Amino acid sequence: MEKVIITLTGRPRPVEIDEDEWPILAQAEWEEGEKKLERRVWQLIVRQHEDGRALVYGVFETHRRGEHPRRGGELVPPGGDIPETVHRVAENLGFDPWLAEETIGDLPAEEL
Question: Which tens digits make up the pLDDT trace of 60-112?
């Protein structure tokens, strides 16, 4: 049982979840920089619990001088709007909108 610690925006402390109980539903990532001191990584992740709650969160990691890592996310109630939350989290973290669209595109398809 692997534990994951996630920083959520506006909460006083990070949350800790069991990876098996909150599997990844969708994710997108972009990396740039070949050398360690140039490396930057942007990630958006959606996890969902069997009770319908979802965690949407993002991480920006950087080794560049003058840049700082960023983390944040939101807990979505059952039936909440996950795509809207993905866009909001991406915007709050200063991510390019295409990364949000890539994450949404990775969500399970809706049958019509």
Answer: 999 888 889 999 999 999 999 999 999 999 999 999 999 999 999 999 998 99
pLDDT score for 6: 96
Query: Looking up tokens 């506006």, which residue turns up?
Result: 10
Dihedral, 16, 99, 77, 12 alpha carbons, nearest 10:
40
Check if the beta carbon of residue 17 is closer than 8 Å to that of residue 55.
yes
Do 6 and 57 touch, CB atoms closer than 8 A?
Answer: yes
Backbone phi, psi, residue 83, to 5°:
-60, -40
For residues 34 and 38, give the distance between their C-alpha atoms in angstroms, rounded to a whole number.
7
Please provide the DSSP assignment of 40-96 as one string. Answer: EEEEEEEEE-TTS-EEEEEEEEE-STT---EEEEEEE-TT--HHHHHHHHHHHTT--
From residue 51, alpha-carbon distances to 20, 74, 76, 79, 87 in Å are 13, 16, 11, 10, 23
Residues 88, 21, 106, 43, CA torsion sign: positive
